[in-house]
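We modelled the chain as a single entity of 186 amino acids. Its sequence is:
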Amino acid sequence: MNRRKSIGLISVGSCLFAQNTFASGSGIFGPRLFNDGFMDSFRPRWEGLQTHTFEVLEAMPEAQFDFQPTTEVMSFSRLFSHIGRSLEIYAGMLDETSADEESKPVSKAEVHTSLKGSFDRFERGLTQLNAKNLYTPTHEIATRDGSLNMSDYDIIMLAYNHTGHHKGQATTYLRLAGATPPQYRY
């Protein structure tokens, strides 16, 4: 058997093993939800991402809160509203409810409050997960390239990556506006 085929079989076997090693639990931040270690590993990363996102938000002076480097990109305040709205949508996918209407926060304090509510709602969505279905594609997502079938795990990772992406943009905005970004945290 050639090396490439062997590696492929090992990878497939690992995926099958991971999909069949779940234990039941009551929530992501309560008792252990999955015995494959994903949630134990994800939790501190999610908490660090959330904390750093708010540190980046707070680093922009109120007077420059609507800073927009070019007309083609979202303003600083809009980035954070967009993060919040996306978390609401992802939470709705996880807990099978519809997201609230998008709010139009204006001030820094309103954006902070709205974003905090969105993070809280996403975390509540995480607690609704069924441990046995974490990796089972149960969500059909329309994209510009067609539809994708995604699992709860995929939605969680989408939320994490999307939030990190826009937080990174906001960090660049801080530098362009002459503000000092907070130190990165894990």
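As a brief sanity check on the tokenised model: The chain is about 55% helix and 5% strand. Residues 3-34 have pLDDT under 50 and may be disordered.
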